[in-house]
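Fold sample X.
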Amino acid sequence: MEITPYVGTELTFTDNVNRSNTNQQSSFITALETGIEATVEGNRGYLGLDYELRYLYYTETDRNDKLYQNLDFYTFKGLGRSGFQVDASASIENIAEDIATDANADEISGDTIQSNQAQIGLSYRTNPLSTMDLRSRIYTRVIDNEDEIGNYTGWGGNVSYANGRSVKDAFWLLSLSYDYREGRDDEVSTEFSRINEVFGLQTIGGFAPFVRLNYENYNGVTDSPENEILNWGIGTRYFWDRYSYLDVSYNFSEDDVNSDFWAGAINLSPSDRTRFYFQYDKRLRGDAYAAEIRHRTRRWTNTLTYTERPDSYERERFVQGGE
């Protein structure tokens, strides 16, 4: 366990221009900071906390002094050896009131608002070294912005069922996900659901045929009629080794959004600890890409991902005078 309290002072000099009479004014900004950082690691559990209070004091300027707070909190705890795990996260941050005028969310010279987020989840995973790798998670979350733009409550879940590493003659992946969000002010809701399935015959150091299926449905605040897709395809996967492969498939669309198309993916796993993955596909709005770089050490798993998916209630999508 490690706990670190801290206190700090910062002095900033700025030149402000009075737009009414074009006179230039100089001012000092004093920032008083205090906070606490804590990390607790235990048996099948972790807690990380970083909380800061920051007071900005302005001199010779028309800006008001203001107190800011920032929070970054995350914790999880495994429930014995059952495979279940509880997690929770919360954050307080000051974001730009309008990214067009304050793209960097600068608290000193820009206009920011406080954004609060909280989420609780329950997950479950089997032993991936056995005949199956089953992962699932359910969650609920709440977003509360100071100016009430983009506020929502929501819940959802996902299930992933794949072959375990002991399976040598086939591979499969069945993935289901659902996300529901409801506006806290207008009570307008959005929901997104997806089913993705791949099944094939597994070989080592050779070609493996497979079939795939993808279904997506989005309902909510949108004028577009193209909110549901269904496609299926056949393809082949070439294995360099047990876990590294390249696959290509041709897919038939059963909807009016996409025409028939080619798709592909490459997965490189030079070791059990490292993975590089890239995929090209088509989804609700046409061409879609996904990428992942993951490396696992003895105590941590570091992951960098890029995904494209429908989303809602993001502040950047709200415009003044409209929805």
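Fold sample Y, listed below.
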Amino acid sequence: MSTAATETAGPAVRVRFLGEFELTVNGAPVRRWRAGKARGLFQYLVVHRGQMLTRDRLYASLWPGADSSAGSSLKVAAHALRRVLDAHPDGPGDSGITLVYRDFGYVLHVSGLWSDVDLFQEYVHSGLRAAAAGDAPLARSRLRAAADLYGGDFLRGESADWVVEQREYLRALALRGLGVLRADAEEREDSVELIEVCRRVLEIDRHHEETYRALMAAHGRRGELACVRRWYELCARRMGDELALSPGRETQQLLRTLIPSAARTVAPSGGPAATVRALRPAGRRAGVPAWSANARTGVLTPSSVRPARPDSRAPAALTRIAGPATA
């Protein structure tokens, strides 16, 4: 996939996939599609633009179960797509879009394209590389920009297999970037950013138990014990109602550590020594920070509240959590 053009370059074609789908050509939104599958065909082709996609592959992705040798659905959708976007290869319009039939399939070319998916991936990958290299300010800038750009699930509401696959990949990428920002906020004890990052994580994955623990610990440091209990109860309710699971041992023990009286409502599991062990990630040695590369799923141990340190004080945390530079 090619690198996204910047917004300031004034590309002729702008596509938003994250959240509600939106296509704008030369400043005008495209809302009317002449065939039901023309929009889906464009979405698939623009994600794989520049590649020759065979008829069999297109049918398997867009018309699963249909006979590609006998069906005319692809031809109808391609014809409608050319009319909607003025994308005929023999007489292209001023959109910069051309749809070409070549051998046994189609290839889409788009010049001057801005895509939120391209830019999101560019921000996350460059942010992770910067974090791994110890450039904390650049890492924060890129990863915060990626979080702001992530406006929702990829093609929200669509259920085709290829959409779900792309959606889950981008979700995982967003969670990784947010994980780096969360670990950095924990290191700097910046509770404002930590809570905001956790909110964004739960918008993507409402069952992300590590995030509930981070929120419980953050409020525990501030002495906001009612908030600690409410986050635990929300975690327990969502996991129970939607996954038929109970909060894990680490989450239960964190609650008991922050609110000793909660021991009456949480199943016991081994006393004080077990609590101390459970507050460390599995396999982590005592004294190793919870955000180190060997303890990325750990729980932040409650500590006294100290003023947030400035950004420049925590490059090591970003380096450790980012892991190897991303290609």
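Sample Y note: Strands lie at 13-16, 22-25, 28-29, 53-54, 97-102, 105-110, 113-115.
Also: Confidence is low (pLDDT under 50) at residues 1-8, 267-314.
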